[in-house]
Specification:
The protein is of the alpha+beta class. The chain contains two helices and five strands. Helix content is 31%, strand content 34%. It has a five-stranded antiparallel β-sheet, with helices on one face. α1 crosses α2. The longest helix is centred in the middle third of the chain and has 15 residues. It starts with a strand and ends with a strand.
Amino acid sequence: MMNTFIEEVLESGHKIFILQTPYQSVVISIPKLNWSTEISLSLCEESKYDHILSSLIFQMYEGNCTQLTQQILPLIHTNNTLKQFTYN
């Protein structure tokens, strides 16, 4: 099974991991914040933004959740930087 994977460092300095599943969704994780969420790729952009933002607000006590959401959302659509790998 082929999956698509991104590992990036956001402007905020947080390392982010994004895994596209075979089920038309992505799992987004920021280990430093002990945060992750799964989003369906079939959602509209506004729904994806709202899902990420509300999940971050629930998890974080301090920090700019709006700015972090704005940094994360474009990575879901940056297909040219995705790394391919195979699960055994």
